[in-house]
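Form 7-S
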Amino acid sequence: MPKTISNKNNLQVLYEDNHLLIVNKRPGDIVQGDKTGDKPLSDIVKEYIAEKYNKPGAVYLGVVHRLDRPTSGIVVFARTSKALPRLNKLFANKEAQKTYWAVVQDQPATQSDTLIHWLKRNPKQNKSYAYKNEVPDSKKAVLDYKLIKKLDNYYLLEIDLHTGRHHQIRSQLSNIGSIIKGDLKYGANRSNKDGSIHLHARKLTFIHPIKKEPLTIVAPPPPDAIWDACL
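Output:
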């Protein structure tokens, strides 16, 4: 079971060794600092390392990838300069298998499918638009989904990503009419009270960059009635 460290930030650590630290991000946390000035998860992790290992001075921490602010789930950090470039290469080469859970308002037309779109990002809106055919400045986006549970009013999809585009899952699911619960930006009829969306980075499988052993991490979703019903 994941352990929650009893520090002031209630950081949920899923895996930790000399080279890696993997945490379960809460919805609302930002992975790296941005224009909001809010305290990023990277700083919280550095504080955790400094406190646990009594490290004086600056703590080394490499940010390997990000999750959208309203999304929850697995985030990987590198604790050494040896691990960071290897992790960056691993993620860039799509050698990490990412599985997400999404709770959607409307059931997809088919129980499972491969979605292929061309996504075009609009930086001013911080939004990506999905097209069936290639358009200028668009990038190919591919994912597999399957319906794994029917809830009273929603549907739980499991998604395997083949590409890692900006807002890919949110945009592609919205395009087929299966909008993620709480995702106002992509067409949800109402927001979640805490500003989250029901998208969760559930599982990550990759080869440890130093130990060269397979590693599979599974993150429990945030505690709420809808997520609890999915388990």
